[in-house]
UniProtKB/TrEMBL annotation:
This is Olfactory receptor. The lineage of its organism: Eukaryota, Metazoa, Chordata, Craniata, Vertebrata. The chain crosses the membrane at residues 26-49, 61-83, 103-125, 145-169, 197-222, 243-266, 272-295. PROSITE patterns: G_PROTEIN_RECEP_F1_1, G_PROTEIN_RECEP_F1_2. One of its GO terms (cellular component) is plasma membrane. One of its GO terms (molecular function) is olfactory receptor activity. InterPro entries: GPCR_Rhodpsn, GPCR_Rhodpsn_7TM, Olfact_rcpt, OR51/52/56-like. Keywords: Cell membrane, G-protein coupled receptor, Membrane, Olfaction, Receptor, Sensory transduction, Transducer, Transmembrane, Transmembrane helix. SUPFAM superfamilies: Family A G protein-coupled receptor-like. It is found in: Cell membrane; Membrane. It is a multi-pass membrane protein. PANTHER family: OLFACTORY RECEPTOR 51E2, OLFACTORY RECEPTOR 56B1-RELATED. Residues 42-293 form the G-protein coupled receptors family 1 profile domain.
């Protein structure tokens, strides 16, 4: 029987949980909570260091701040809700809350994809046109790119929850993840979802797909320019400035592709696979991004070491 979408009886959904006795859920959530704390601390540290370090007030690190803010918002829009049902057994989520969470997840992911593309363009201009880099990517241009990324994400992914509003839902309301995704909720509808499928696929291809293609083209052009350099030492030195960004791109797109493959071809897989892939998609980029740039950026390393040194001195006293 479908659920009518009325104010008197709006559908609610059951979030997926890790298989096992409920008594073990408390302990199962501890690794998830630990990753969330690391993500919050790491991204807040990046924002603080870039703000207080004048040498990092350049487009590449402004884009990194945007990534950190996105990762904070994305993880905060999902992980606390996940922890609440593991620790307090509140697995049910209302239809409205599910749509809001879905909007934030998809929109923030689209914004992150656009910022990663902007960072690739920044690397391309810095390596292939170094004399024009400061003139092309000014602080004002960087701010405009950030605003354009937000507008693009909202415009492309706001229709996803709106397309779900008129649909009736079946009696089976159990999601395959610990949070709400468009394709997951859509599969529970008892109606024709062709418009949802077509628009969802189009939005993904025109945003994440196009961004991934343009990032690849940027790095092909960078590689072509690097190979023109005379010595291998110069080539490695120049290309090493891209290593952190390449790692961040992989940390974002590999879980995204993995989650898409699981949705498309993994209907017979164990529920645990869907849950783990969803959690990886939400948390791994947020955890890895500050670590990657912390390892690759000397200014960030120095500030972190100074902070730890001051903290150790205070605790020793």
């Amino acid at each position: 029987m479908p659920f009518p979408n009325s104010s008197d009886l709006s559908p609610s959904f059951i979030l997926a949980s890790i298989p096992g006795p409920e008594a073990a859920h408390f302990w199962m959530a501890i690794p998830l909570c630990s990753m969330y704390i690391v993500a919050i601390a790491g991204n807040c540290m990046v924002l603080f260091i870039v703000k207080t370090e004048p040498s990092l007030h350049v487009p590449m690190y402004f884009f990194l701040c945007m990534l950190a803010a996105i990762d904070l918002a994305l993880s905060t829009s999902t992980v606390p809700r996940v922890l609440s049902f593991y620790w307090f057994n509140t697995r049910e989520i209302s239809f409205g809350a599910c749509l809001v969470q879905m909007f934030f997840i998809h929109t923030l992911s689209a914004i992150e994809s656009t910022i990663l593309l902007a960072m690739a363009v920044d690397r391309y201009v810095a390596i292939c046109h170094p004399l024009r880099h400061a003139a092309i990517l000014t602080n004002a241009t960087t701010a405009k790119i950030g605003l354009a990324a937000m507008a693009r994400g909202v415009l492309f992914f706001l229709p996803l929850p709106l397309l779900l509003l008129p649909l009736p839902f079946c009696s089976s309301r159990v999601l395959s993840h610990s949070f709400c995704l468009h394709q997951d909720v859509m599969n529970l509808a008892c109606a024709n979802t062709t418009p949802n499928v077509v628009y969802g696929l189009t939005a993904i291809l025109l945003v994440m797909g196009l961004d991934a293609l343009l990032i690849c083209i940027s790095y092909l052009l960078i590689l072509k320019a690097v190979l023109r350099l005379a010595s291998w030492k110069e080539r490695l030195k120049v290309f090493s400035t891209c290593i952190a960004h390449i790692c961040v791109v992989l940390a974002f797109y590999v879980p995204l592709i993995g989650l898409s493959v699981v949705h498309r071809f993994g209907r017979d897989l164990a529920p645990l696979v869907h849950i783990i892939m969803g959690n990886i998609y939400i948390l791994v980029p947020a955890v890895l991004n500050p670590i990657i740039y912390g390892v690759r950026t000397k200014q960030i390393q120095r500030r972190i070491l100074n902070f730890l040194h001051i903290y150790n001195n205070r605790t020793a006293q």
